[in-house]
Amino acid sequence: KNQVEQSPQSLIILEGKNCTLQCNYTVSPFSNLRWYKQDTGRGPVSLTIMTFSENTKSNGRYTATLDADTKQSSLHITASQLSDSASYICVVSAGNRDDKIIFGKGTRLHILP
Amino acid sequence: NAGVTQTPKFRVLKTGQSMTLLCAQDMNHEYMYWYRQDPGMGLRLIHYSVGEGTTAKGEVPDGYNVSRLKKQNFLLGLESAAPSQTSVYFCASTQKTGLLETQYFGPGTRLLVL
């Protein structure tokens, strides 16, 4: 069964600290993996997208890693800011299927001043 | 360039009423999607379209209908609303250009069915 599991479910850190969010997936065949940021009351916004041949991709203070062998991805946030408080959603697309886009439940990140 | 817009932003319905949610995109994308997001769950695909005049069922299509008469618009209809359809509905669009396509989401429509 195609699944995307994210951990932790929620995380609280102090402003300025780093954190890492995890994503494990069982989607097959794999096409790409994306990380989205969703602010409260808003739609998800894309942070990174990676194919199986990419190990790391950065977008400012956000760095995503992908291990296609172990089917794991992580999103590392450096020097967190209050504006980073949001839900972070891992999304995996299955190849050749327009409807097989599997969303994780998200990690809710709270940044405290 | 407004991206993906949704109307209305919020709506309250009584059980049995009908309504249509409108999604519009100005990026000339071929693919459009309707999702619902419920607490504690990932986004679930209701219906999608791979081009003007086409529609297809997603994971949770029951109780919903869609139409894509124009490339830029994707309508989601609820014929007879039920409390189980209380949710936040997101529209998304994408242009398939190989493996690196990404979805652009609208701001969401919050629907409460009493």
Describe the structure.
The complex is a heterodimer of chains A (113) and B (114). Chain A has 113 residues and is mainly β. Chain A has strands at residues 4-7, 10-14, 19-25, 30-38, 45-51, 56-59, 62-67, 72-77, 86-94, 101-103, 107-112. In chain A, strands 2, 4, 5, 9, 10 and 11 form a 6-stranded mixed β-sheet that branches. A 5-stranded antiparallel β-sheet of chain A has the order 1-3-8-7-6, with no helix packed on it. In chain A, strand 9 (86-94) and strand 10 form a beta hairpin. Chain A is globular and about 45 Å long. The N and C termini of chain A lie far apart (41 Å). In chain B, strand 4 (31-37) and strand 5 form a beta hairpin. Chain B starts with a strand and ends with a strand. The model of chain B has no long low-confidence stretch (mean pLDDT 93). Chain B contains no helices and 11 strands. Classes of the chains: A mainly beta (113), B mainly beta (114).
How is this fold's topology laid out?
The complex is a heterodimer of chains A (113) and B (114).
Chain A: E1 4-7, E2 10-14, E3 19-25, E4 30-38, E5 45-51, E6 56-59, E7 62-67, E8 72-77, E9 86-94, E10 101-103, E11 107-112
Chain B: E1 4-7, E2 10-13, E3 19-25, E4 31-37, E5 44-49, E6 56-57, E7 64-67, E8 73-78, E9 87-94, E10 104-105, E11 109-113
Parallel strand pairs in B: 2-11
Antiparallel strand pairs in B: 1-3, 3-8, 4-5, 4-9, 5-6, 7-8, 9-10, 9-11
Count the E strands of chain B: 11
Largest sheet of chain B: 7 strands, mixed
Number of helices of chain A: 0
Estimated helix fraction of chain B: under 10%
Oligomer status: heterodimer
Most extensive interface: A-B, 22 and 27 residues
Structural class of chain B: mainly beta
Average pLDDT score of chain B: 93
Query: Radius of gyration of chain A, Cα only, in angstroms?
Result: 14 Å
Query: Low-confidence runs of chain A (pLDDT<50, min 5 residues)?
Result: none
Task: Output the structural class of chain A.
Answer: mainly beta
Average pLDDT across residues of chain A?
A: 93
Global morphology of chain B: globular
Specify the overall morphology of chain A: globular
Strand content of chain A: over 45%
C-alpha end-to-end distance of chain B: 36 Å
Please trace the helix and strand order of chain B, writing H or E for each element.
EEEEEEEEEEE
Cα-to-Cα separation, first versus last residue of chain A: 41 Å
